[in-house]
Amino acid sequence: MKDKLLSLALFLHHSKKYKTYKQFARDLLFDANNIYKRYFDLTIIFLVISSVLILIYEVKNPVPIWLDNYDIYFVSIIFAIEYILRLWVHNDLSEMIIKEYNDSKFLLKDFNLWRVIKTGLYAKMKYMLTPSAIVDLLAILPAYRPLRVLRVFILFRVFKLLRYTKSINQFVDVLVNKKFELLTLLFLLLFIVFTSGIAIYILEADKNPKIHTLFDGIYWAIVTISTVGYGDISPVTDVGRGISILIIVSGIAMISFVTSVIVSAFSERLNELKEYRIIEQINKNRSFLIICGYGQLSKMFFRQNRKHIEHYVIMDNDKERVEKAKKDGYVAIHENASSFETLSKFDSQYADITILCLTSSDVENIYITLNAKSISRKIKVIARVNDPETIDKFKHAGADEILMPNIVANTMIYTAITQPTMYKAIHAILTGKSIANIDEIHVHHSHGMVEKQIKELDFKSSKLLFIGIQREGEFIFNPPSDEQIQPYDILLVMGRKISLEYFKSMHEGDISVKK
Fold first, then answer.
1. Mean pLDDT of the chain
2. Residue range(s) in the chain whose domain bears CATH number 3.30.70.1450
3. 422-426, 461-465, 469-473: which has the minimum mean pLDDT?
4. Which CATH number fits domain 286-403: 3.40.50.720, 1.20.1440.20, 3.40.50.1260, 3.40.50.2000?
């Protein structure tokens, strides 16, 4: 038996299909970025609502057989499958067995299979006793009901909505964050209720015909402190009326305190919820830009490229700068961009992400670069460098491109003073005020331009000025005409827009032009 279980665990461990199915089930149940999860959640919500509506309808109306079968079998079977899947993906017994077996071999000790199985089953049992798992189990019970009284368990299906409705989850999270305050108020409430109930029972048990037991006193205290006041029990003594006044005032104060706690909790979380929605929305795009820091460079970047930027988000850990960005009409969130947890919120597996590190701190920009590259090497990082001595650190951190605004500004200022005509020409080209434009032509490995010589491309016939090639991080200015184009080269050309479009049409399918 022991050998068979070990063989089964080894088979599952090496089975790609098994791992694929289990990962798919786990993503479907828990991964918010899974493309099928939204449809799965909507299906469960529909099944819950439809089964409850059937329960309400059948109170005074006969239910058709097909509808009853749908409720008893179809809905319950779906819920049972969901329950089994959650139990299945909670932990992996086969992986636990393999790990224990390898550890035993390495340490030269006996392989204790039953201890591993016991641990794995205990973990599953512990999950089964969680509130959400109990609700899932009770939602299945109506399927096994020869007694119609078990139909009441359908109401437990409503609690499944807690898992599939984000708004309810967010409300619960807010309450959980204020657990200490709410529990303090609850204990104070219970103290007042029991004290008042005992007091009214002692004072009026012999004088008030409506108070016979301590439970009557507790009931009166709850009704009074909640300001409901049914009037079925009323104090008849002056002391009892005085207690009523105190408990009513206490009830109003308690309601005010609870309301203020909940409102303050929601106000604290409101911006966080809004920012979460922004991140959710931007993660739906195939490519987007993350701009870290909202300062002068960010403003200049947007002034020059606002029309060309479709999907972006600005992140800054200064609330005032975030509010300023929002007032300027940009999408901004208050987050620490140098935090691994913050950058992990963006779906780097699904989308092409470019990060602009434009904060004024080199240390912060390095941290952003390190965290971005540790999440995914696919993320492109363009980092601002203030101190030239830190360039090597940025390169080691993995920055794809480096910006040195101080050096560029000094160079442009010097050029403007010593060579004003050249400065005016360069400035006009870079800002788009000139007829001529400078563009980058990105060559991919499958394009027809690969291995062609520069003279074969005949830039002159397209009325373009070929400036040079960037290859493997180095720029080759005015290369010889017999130089061959290689995959992933970036060609820098200058010319009128119409010439660039004509050149692109000539090589359609061979290159992509990116301005």
1. 81
2. 435-514
3. 422-426
4. 3.40.50.720
DSSP H/E element including 89 = helix 76-90
The per-residue pLDDT for range 103-154, each reduced to its tens digit, is 887 777 777 778 888 888 888 899 899 888 888 887 777 654 444 555 556 6
Q: In whole angstroms, what is the distance from residue 170 CA to residue 173 CA? A: 5
Cα(431)–Cα(304) distance, integer angstroms = 7
Cβ neighbours for 27, distance < 8 A, ≥ 6 positions apart? 34, 37
Q: CB-side exposure of 244: number of CA atoms within 13 Å? A: 20
Supply the DSSP symbol for 167.
H
For 451, left (φ over 0), alpha (ψ -120 to 50), or beta?
Answer: left
CB atoms within 10 A of CB 16: 7
**What is the 3-state composition of the chain as percent helix, strand, coil, each rounded to the nearest 5?**
65, 10, 25
**Residue labelled with tokens 């965290």:** 371
Q: Is residue 403 a contact partner of residue 383, using CB atoms and an 8 Å limit?
A: yes
Measured CA to CA, the distance from residue 234 to residue 229 in angstroms comes to: 9
Give the pLDDT band (50/70/90) at residue 167. low
Does the pLDDT of residue 319 top 50, yes or no?
A: yes
Task: Please give the CATH number for the structural domain made up of 179-269.
Answer: 1.10.287.70
What is the rounded distance in angstroms from the CA atom of residue 471 to the CA atom of residue 365? 25
**Alpha carbon 354 to chain centroid, angstroms:** 18
SS3 484: strand
How does DSSP classify residue 461?
G
Identify the CATH homologous superfamily for domain 435-514.
Regulator of K+ conductance, C-terminal domain (3.30.70.1450)
> Is residue 513 predicted with pLDDT exceeding 50?
no
Q: Report which secondary-structure segment, H or E, holds 382.
A: strand 380-384
Q: What is the pLDDT of residue 507?
A: 63
Could you tell me if 155 and 55 are in contact, meaning their C-beta atoms sit under 8 angstroms apart?
Answer: yes
- The single residue listed with the structure tokens 């020059």 is 304
Nearest of 140, 163, 137 to residue 51 by alpha carbon: 140
**Residue 395: enclosing H or E segment and its boundaries?**
helix 391-397
